[in-house]
Every structure is written in C-alpha cells, then in structure tokens.
Amino acid sequence: MKIFFNGEELEVDNGLSLAQFIKDRGLTPDGTACAVDENIIPKATWSDFKLEENMHLDVFTLVAGG
Amino acid sequence: MRYARQELLPDFKGSSGLLASKKVAVVGVGGLGGLCTYLLAGAGVIKLTIADGDCVSLSNLHRQVLYRMHDIGHKKTEICKKAILELDDRAEVGVFPEINSGNFEEFAAGADLVLDLSDNSATRMFISKACFARRINYIHAAVGGYRGILSAFWYADPEFIEKFGCYRCFAGLLPDLKPAGILGPAASMMASAAAMLALQVLNGNTDLKGYVQLFDLKNNTVKKLGLTKDRSCPVCGG
Ligand SMILES: [Zn+2]
C-alpha cells in the first residue's frame, strides 16, 4: 500500500505497524517523534498503531539545544 | 508611550498592564533564552526570573546576541540581567544558577509561565516534570541544526492535560542528544518564536493550544502538529 513519509510517496506492506516502520527505516525510537496525519502518535502506542493506505507520516529527530 | 506600536495590534491593545503583572521564569539564557528574555522584557514582561549556570565563552558569540567579547568569563545571567535593566529600569530580574530539584521551587515561585530554553535533555525532562507537578504553564523551545521545536503545555489547565498530556507524552524519554551544529540566525529565529508564543500565552491567546510547531529554519516553513496524550505516560497518565 501507499503511504507518505516526510512528504514522499512510499510503498509499504499492508498492516505494517508504526514501530516496525520506524525500525525498518533504521531509526531509533528514542529521540524520534512521529505524527500521522498531523497528530503526534505517542511512542508507547507505536507497536499497536497499524499504518493504513494514504496515511501521511512526519517522522523527525528531536533536538534539545538552546 | 513605550508600547504605542505594540498596542496598535488589536489583540495587544491595552495589554501592557496585563503583561507587566505576569511573572515569567526562563531556564537557560544562551542562544534561545538570552534574546527571548530580552524580547519579553521589551514587550513589557518585566517580572522575570532567569537561570543559567554558564559563563560567556568565545564559542557563544556567533549566536548569543546579548553577549560581547568583554563579557567572556562572566556569568550569562548577570550580563542578561544588565541588558534587561538597560532596556527597562522598572524590570525585576531574579537570577539563579543551574536549576535542579533543590532550587526549582524557589525559581518557579509565583511564575505564571516557565520557559525551558535549556541546552540538554536531562534538564528538559526535569523542568517539564517539575512544571507539571506544580501545574505551571510551560513552554518548550529547542533548536539543533536547521530544526526547531516549539510548544506550549498549559499545565495549569486540567482540560489541556486530559486532552493533550505533557512534554513526556510528546517526546518520550529523551536520550542524551549530542550538541548539534547551529547558525546564529537559526537560534535567533527560534528565540523570537518562543517569545512570540510566550506573549500569546500570557495574553490569553489559545490559537496554538494543543499543537507543537516544527520549524524548518533553512526553508522557513512551520508545520503544526496536534499533541496527543499518552494514556500510559509515567508523568501525566493514569
Ligand atoms: Zn504525559
């Protein structure tokens, strides 16, 4: 199925969890945040969160500098 | 009159009394906090408490606009306080070193809003949790590379907490992030954005309530993402 990852179209397996998607991209959950369709998805729910066709994902690295 | 141009804005008309009555506590007066605090003081937020344990160093000068060569080796809080008092001698500026569990209570006493503009993960996790525990409204602003993150957490509002949670819900457990590269303009853009958000919160504007703003400081774009409460959050959940 087709999803959008940081604005780019991407083909992923049906029923893929957000946690697995993040892992497949080589990202570590700590220090990473993710929004689906412009709403933040809390990290604790990533493994239960199933991606669906046409979802828009914004995945970004957190920063702590001041 | 000092605020004539500011009060031409319909939403800030007659706001000087309100802003002068608010007390804001700022953690960190480096690249974000120095300029941000100065802008707040300029806007009439003259009851300020600032905290920073650092002294000015040569490597700060490319982005920390309050500091000069002759300030190197001096405490940032002292230079920042002096700059604020030169801008407005009515200002009351409390000064603290690094904030920890031992001095947070005194630092945040009477504050309507705490701004976390610090430079490390551990301080950020601590400040958010301490503000949550005392239900003090809290603004988080951070910058690294060309990325900026900005959000207000209205901890004084139980409905906000119920719906949007806390900083921990958003960020999870923040690892110790390595200092990122940074350009002066990127730090100053986020400092200004943090001051803008603080003025809105103090002035009762709720347009950004429940959102985190994600800044691309190279292409000048801002994405607004909705905050979501984590029902299992160890800080605010349950
Ligand atoms: Zn929480």
Structural summary, described in words:
In chain A, 11% of the residues lie in helices and 32% in strands. By secondary structure, chain A is mainly β. Chain A has one domain: Ubiquitin-like (UB roll) (Roll), CATH 3.10.20. In chain A, strand 3 (32-36) and strand 4 (39-40) form a beta hairpin. The radius of gyration of chain A is 11 Å and the shape is globular. The mean pLDDT of chain A is 96. Chain B is of the alpha/beta class. Chain B has 8 helices and 8 strands. In chain B, helix 2 (33-42) runs parallel beside helix 3 and helix 2 crosses helix 8. The site of zinc ion has 9 residues of chain B, from helix 7.
Write the layout of secondary structure elements.
The complex is a heterodimer of chains A (66) and B (238).
Chain A: E1 2-5, E2 8-11, H1 18-24, E3 32-36, E4 39-40, E5 56-61
Parallel strand pairs in A: 1-5
Antiparallel strand pairs in A: 1-2, 3-4, 3-5
Chain B: H1 16-21, E1 23-27, H2 33-42, E2 47-51, H3 76-87, E3 92-96, H4 104-108, E4 113-116, H5 121-133, E5 137-144, E6 147-153, H6 158-164, H7 167-171, H8 184-202, E7 211-216, E8 221-226
Parallel strand pairs in B: 1-2, 1-4, 2-3, 4-5
Antiparallel strand pairs in B: 5-6, 6-7, 7-8
Helix pairs in contact in B: 2-3, 2-8
